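Entry for pyridoxal-5'-phosphate complex. Fields follow.
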Amino acid sequence: MKTQQLVSSAETIALYDQYVMMTYGKQPVVLVRGEGCLAYDAEGKEYLDLVAGIAVNGLGHCPPKVVEAIRKQAGILMHTSNLYYVPGQAQLAKLLCEISGMSKAFFCNSGAEANEAAMKLVKKAAKVSGHPEKCEIVTALKSFHGRTLAAITATGQPKYQKSFTPLVPGYKYIPYNDMEALKDAVDEQTCAIMMEPVQGESGVHPGTVEFMQTARELCDKYGAALIFDEVQTGLGRTGKMFGFQQFGVVPDVMTLAKTLGGGFPIGACLARDNWADVFEPGDHAATFGGNPLACAAAIAAVTEIRDGGWVENADKVGAYFRERLADLPGVTQVRGLGLMIAVDFAQPIAKTLVAKALEAGLIINATSDNTLRFVPPLILTKELVDRAVGAIAGILNSEF
Ligand SMILES: *Cc1c(COP(=O)(O)O)cnc(C)c1O
């Protein structure tokens, strides 16, 4: 291990208290290093990380091929401007289109930015088709699409919106998986339906085939775009390369971020057929979007996810993980696809469990008082599942 000048965890936390805006409810741990599914704090304690940067570290911490690609590219060219051509961005766009069936890509830096691009794209598409009245976007309650103003507007959760009104006009919300409500909400004014294939942030709720097929049919009927927010579900998470492949329903526009850069920030909005040619010079931009360094990281990450067998691994180890979780005491439901998993408890113990697990060297996440969410690296093994479930069982079986 490399030696590193480390400040203590307490010193770092004190600096945060003084200098960093408190936008996050943080766990009391200072992480300084990671390798695969493991992470280490400033005092050298080891943690099994089943949050993985909230579904970002799909290949675990510091995946060797991504590290190598970043090191190499950093010494060649890190950033130009999108006013010039760079090879990596073109290669990444080709790779993503080949694995997704989409036609073209726009690159940005995050999930919220990718969704902004998607929402601007569908609004412009309606206008250029001669239908300026088509300006409504239908999204789901309990969805999550990011934290910019348009993204929190699309996010059907009042708790994220209430302090930031007025929101962006033109949004309608329906209960997820409610086909009748969707049919009632969509009409000639609709320019897009935007859905997560599996609702992640609100506790891992998979969409139903019938609901997604209904969304597709309604979009076709009214000439609206079907946008899938695959920021969390994309690139192997659900045990398929993309969430939409779970339903046999192909979106017109899809967004990616989280796992895309293997830990390096990058987002993408992909679109197919006519939707891919809506934007013209001047319509949209991101200074850092798709720069050579981010694209090198993403090419390495996506290639490894595709060729390393990690999508299949997510499917297989995810099934095993769900089976093991179902045996824990007090569990009322286990949900999810692949390595995107939630477990509900009868009692409101999730937050206490997260704290106790951290003490026991296990990083897990609660989406509510009763629900734990697991979005571990796709490289997780059955042995590590046993270690995690054993640790949680140990906590549940002790007095707390
Ligand atoms: C995390 C997430 C986002 C937001 O991504 P950021 O990179 O934080 O902007 C958007 N949509 C979904 C489905 C997400 O899980």
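NOTE: The first strand starts at residue 31 and ends at 35.
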